[in-house]
């Protein structure tokens, strides 16, 4: 097999995604016909299935095949974890997060961000905030750190409405007492 031709198809698919889906699919099919276990082609096919077609089951299959082909392919982990969370496969997502944190060279900040998202989806907001703070500690650039700060703030806002309701009740009781005294 000519690896240059395979690489050309993969690169054309990367270049076309997500703007020209027809060209993306065509080039991915050619690439996978040359090498059915090409990790990058499988990864991109998984993204296409999840992000464009909403078929999380097929996306999971493609991501699993990509990782089986190349375990150190870092890009797959984040997207695979997100698909598992979107598909409510929380236990599988947690297992993949735990494994991903042991992979050498992986961006631990991104994986901890996924951990925070998993906890948020499970409505464990305190653990989500703690995981996001850990992600922030692993952040290498201001853009990522700013994004994590926004995520923490957003999750804190989910917690606050419960507290605000209680404080409104207290205020209304105090207001009633003041009105009764007058």
From TrEMBL:
<protein>
    <submittedName>
        <fullName>Uncharacterized protein</fullName>
    </submittedName>
</protein>
<feature type="region of interest" description="Disordered">
    <location>
        <begin position="156"/>
        <end position="182"/>
    </location>
</feature>
<dbReference type="InterPro" id="IPR011990">
    <property type="entry name" value="TPR-like_helical_dom_sf"/>
</dbReference>
<feature type="compositionally biased region" description="Basic residues">
    <location>
        <begin position="159"/>
        <end position="182"/>
    </location>
</feature>
């Amino acid at each position: 097999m000519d690896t240059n031709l395979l690489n050309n198809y993969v690169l054309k698919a990367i270049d076309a995604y997500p703007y020209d889906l027809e060209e993306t699919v065509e080039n991915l099919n050619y690439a996978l016909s040359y090498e059915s276990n090409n990790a990058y082609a499988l990864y991109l096919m998984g993204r296409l299935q999840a992000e464009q077609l909403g078929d999380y089951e097929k996306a999971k299959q493609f991501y699993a095949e990509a990782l089986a082909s190349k375990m150190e392919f870092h890009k797959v982990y984040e997207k695979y974890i997100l698909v598992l969370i979107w598909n409510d496969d929380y236990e599988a997502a947690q297992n993949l997060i735990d494994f991903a944190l042991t992979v050498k060279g992986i961006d631990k900040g991104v994986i901890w961000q996924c951990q925070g998202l998993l906890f948020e989806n499970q409505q464990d907001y305190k653990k989500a905030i703690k995981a996001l703070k850990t992600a922030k500690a692993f952040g290498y650039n201001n853009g990522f750190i700013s994004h994590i700060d926004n995520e923490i703030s957003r999750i804190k806002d989910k917690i606050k409405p419960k507290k605000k309701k209680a404080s409104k009740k207290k205020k209304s009781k105090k207001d009633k007492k003041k009105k009764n005294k007058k």
